[in-house]
Design a protein that fits this description.
Blueprint lengths: L4 H5 L2 H20 L9 E3 L1 H13 L25 E3 L14 H34 L2
Antiparallel strand pairs: 1-2
InterPro entries: Flag_bb_rod_N, Flagellar_basal_body_rod_CS, FlgB
Keywords: Bacterial flagellum, Cell projection, Cilium, Flagellum
Protein name: Flagellar basal body rod protein FlgB
């Protein structure tokens, strides 16, 4: 009998990856808080979860060549549907949509959620090791 890590870990592995990606996006927003015309972005967890579920089922988005005049789409990456622009709470003179306090609070919240996912995965691995040792 073999251990299936995908069944044992569930979606927590992908959630940890999502939290790491979101930290990068939020850090980019904070770094560009004073850049004129910069638009704040954020990742939508529900979209990422839906795309992961679609991949596991075997669906997903694919490009199909319907006419001979169309370009071949092999190797073309589609834009990430989960990465969205954030609506600003108030307009700024330089058209920058980053609100530094909001970004910092989202970053802190994401860090707490990352730590929670990491702790959960760590406990799952400890449980698997205990099961393998027969303790």
């Amino acid at each position: 009998m073999s251990i299936s890590f995908s069944k044992a870990l569930g979606i927590h592995e992908q959630a940890l990856g999502f939290r790491a990606q979101r930290a990068e996006v939020l850090a980019n927003n904070i770094a560009n808080a004073d850049t004129p015309n910069f638009k704040a972005r954020d990742l939508d967890f529900a979209s990422v979860l839906a795309s992961q579920a679609q991949r596991q089922v075997g669906g997903g988005t694919s490009l199909e060549r319907t006419r001979w005049q169309h370009f071949d789409a092999d190797g073309v990456e589609l834009a990430d549907p989960a990465l969205r622009f954030r609506n600003p709470h108030h307009a700024s003179i330089d058209q920058n949509s980053v609100d530094l306090q909001v970004e910092q609070s989202h970053y802190a919240e994401n860090a707490v959620q990352f730590q929670a996912s990491f702790t959960l995965l760590n406990n799952k691995f400890k449980g698997l090791v205990t099961a393998l040792r027969g303790e």
